[in-house]
C-alpha cells in the first residue's frame, strides 16, 4: 500500500542498494543457495596463470607460489538486459552479496589474497548470467619430497584445488580449457631448481563423512641445479681425499707431519658433512650426498689408520734390529734416517761421527778439538749438502714401508672406481 511504501522510504536503517545491485536484482534472490539448487550439479570451470614460484624449502618441505585463480560459472539470477551485450565488471564489494564457489587449496599451510593497493579481486558478469571471478593469491603448500637422490634429485610437487562444502552432487570442478587452462610466466626462475614442466590434471577425493569431491591438480617438476653443490660439497671432499694421499709420500718416521696431515683432513671432512646436514631436513634414510661424503670420510680415515699400521710395524722392526745389534758404549746406535727424523736434517753416515766418541774427544782436548772441529764441521757441511741433493730421494724411497708403496696405488684406484660407479648410478 501507499502507506507501507512511505514508511519504507522514511526508514533510515535501510541501506539503499547500489545501482549495480538494482540492475542485477540482488535483493530478489537468495544467494545463500547455489545456482540451480535441487537440480544437477553446477559446473565451475577453473583456469590458473602462475605468476611466480617464490621459494622452495627443503627443510619445511613446502613451496610458495603466486597465481591468478579464475572461476567460470553461470548464475541466471544475475542475468540482466543489455542492448549492447556488454559485461559489467565489479570489485570485491559485490562478492559478499552473491554466491561464489568455495574453492580452497588442499595441504595449504598459509595463503592470502593480495590487497595492495586495493583487494586484488575482480567480478565480471555477462548479460546471459555467465560469471568470471578472478583472484590474485599467494599460497604456501606442502610438497612431499624424496631426498634419496639429493642433490641429484628431481622433485614433483602439486597444488590441489577443491570445493570445501559442495561435493560432486552439488558442484563439478573442471579445467576450463583442458590442458591449456594452466599457463605460466616465461620469466619464472629459481636459484636452485630448473622447472622442467607444468601440467594440469583432475581426480576425485573421498571423505568418509561427506562423500566424493572433485579435485584439480597443478603439477610441476623441479630438477635441481648441481653446480652449487659441486663447488660447496663434492669438490672440497675430493680435495681432502687427495690431500690425505700426500701422507703416503712422506717419510714414515716423520710422525708429526703425517699425524697432523691426517687429523686435519679428518676434521675438515667432518665440517663439510656437518654443514650439509644442517641445511637439510632430518630424514631417516640416506641421501646421495651422504653416500659420497661418508665414503670420502672413510678414505681419509683409512689413510690415518694406514699410517698407524706403518708406524707400529716400523717400531717392531727396529726393536728386532736393535736386539740383534746389542748395545754399543751404553747407547743405541742412531742411523741416518732416525737422526733426520729427530732434527729435520739429512745426516750422511760416512761423515757424521758417533755421538759418544765425539763427546769423549771434546772433553779430553777442548782447545785442539775446537780448532779442528771448525774445519771438520765445515767439510762435513759441504759433503752433506752434496750428498743431500742426490741421496735424499733415494733414502726416503728405500726407507718407505711396503704398506705405503701399495697405498699409493690402491687408494687412488679404488677412489676413482667409486666415483665412476657413483656418478654413473645417480646421473
Spell out the helices and strands N to C: HHEEEEEEEEEEEEHHHHHHH
Proportion in helices: 40-55%
Average per-residue pLDDT, rounded, comes to 82
The CATH superfamily of the domain at 42-224 bears the name: Neurotransmitter-gated ion-channel ligand-binding domain
Termini, distance in Å? 84 Å
- CATH level 1 name of the domain at 42-224: Mainly Beta
Segments where pLDDT lies below 50 for 5+ residues?
329-333, 340-363
Strand content: 25-35%
At CATH level 3, the topology of the domain at 42-224 is Acetylcholine Binding Protein, Chain: A
Domain Neurotransmitter-gated ion-channel transmembrane: 234-324
Protein name: GABA(C) receptor
Transmembrane segments: 226-247, 259-279, 291-310, 409-426
GO cellular component, one term: chloride channel complex
Amino acid at each position: 500500500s501507499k502507506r507501507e511504501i512511505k514508511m519504507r522510504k522514511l526508514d533510515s536503517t535501510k541501506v539503499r542498494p547500489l545501482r549495480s545491485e538494482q540492475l542485477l536484482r540482488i535483493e530478489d534472490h537468495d544467494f545463500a543457495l547455489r545456482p540451480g539448487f535441487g537440480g544437477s550439479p553446477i559446473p565451475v570451470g577453473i583456469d590458473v596463470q602462475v605468476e611466480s614460484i617464490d621459494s622452495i624449502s627443503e627443510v619445511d618441505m613446502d613451496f610458495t607460489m603466486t597465481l591468478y585463480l579464475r572461476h567460470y560459472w553461470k548464475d541466471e539470477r544475475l542475468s540482466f538486459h543489455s542492448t549492447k551485450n556488454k559485461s559489467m565488471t565489479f570489485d570485491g564489494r559485490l562478492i559478499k552479496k552473491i554466491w561464489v564457489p568455495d574453492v580452497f587449496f588442499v595441504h595449504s599451510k598459509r595463503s592470502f589474497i593480495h590487497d595492495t593497493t586495493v583487494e586484488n579481486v575482480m567480478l565480471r558478469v555477462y548479460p546471459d548470467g555467465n560469471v568470471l571471478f578472478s583472484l590474485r593469491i599467494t599460497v604456501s603448500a606442502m610438497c612431499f619430497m624424496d631426498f634419496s637422490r639429493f642433490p641429484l634429485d628431481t622433485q614433483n610437487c602439486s597444488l590441489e584445488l577443491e570445493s570445501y562444502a559442495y561435493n560432486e552432487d552439488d558442484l563439478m570442478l573442471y579445467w576450463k580449457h583442458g590442458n591449456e587452462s594452466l599457463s605460466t610466466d616465461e620469466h619464472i626462475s629459481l636459484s636452485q631448481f630448473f622447472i622442467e614442466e607444468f601440467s594440469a590434471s583432475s581426480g576425485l577425493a573421498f571423505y568418509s563423512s561427506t562423500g566424493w569431491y572433485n579435485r584439480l591438480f597443478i603439477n610441476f617438476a623441479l630438477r635441481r641445479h648441481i653446480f652449487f653443490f659441486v663447488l660447496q660439497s663434492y669438490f672440497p671432499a675430493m680435495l681432502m681425499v687427495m690431500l690425505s694421499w700426500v701422507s703416503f709420500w712422506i717419510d714414515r718416521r716423520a710422525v708429526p707431519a703425517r699425524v697432523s696431515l691426517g687429523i686435519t683432513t679428518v676434521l675438515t671432512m667432518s665440517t663439510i658433512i656437518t654443514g650439509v646436514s644442517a641445511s637439510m631436513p632430518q630424514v631417516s634414510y640416506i641421501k646421495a650426498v651422504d653416500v659420497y661424503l661418508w665414503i670420502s670420510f672413510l678414505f681419509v680415515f683409512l689413510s690415518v689408520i694406514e699410517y698407524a699400521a706403518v708406524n707400529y710395524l716400523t717400531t717392531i722392526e727396529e726393536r728386532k734390529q736393535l736386539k740383534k745389534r746389542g748395545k754399543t758404549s751404553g747407547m743405541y746406535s742412531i742411523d741416518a734416517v732416525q737422526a733426520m727424523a729427530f732434527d729435520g736434517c739429512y745426516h750422511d753416515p760416512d761423515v757424521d761421527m758417533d755421538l759418544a766418541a765425539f763427546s769423549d774427544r771434546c772433553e779430553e782436548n777442548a782447545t785442539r778439538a775446537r780448532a779442528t772441529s771448525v774445519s771438520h764441521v765445515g767439510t762435513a757441511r759441504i759433503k752433506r749438502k752434496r750428498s743431500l741433493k742426490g741421496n735424499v730421494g733415494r733414502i726416503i724411497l728405500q726407507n718407505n714401508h711396503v704398506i705405503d708403496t701399495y697405498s699409493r696405488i690402491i687408494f687412488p684406484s679404488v677412489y676413482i672406481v667409486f666415483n665412476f660407479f657413483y656418478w654413473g648410478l645417480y646421473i
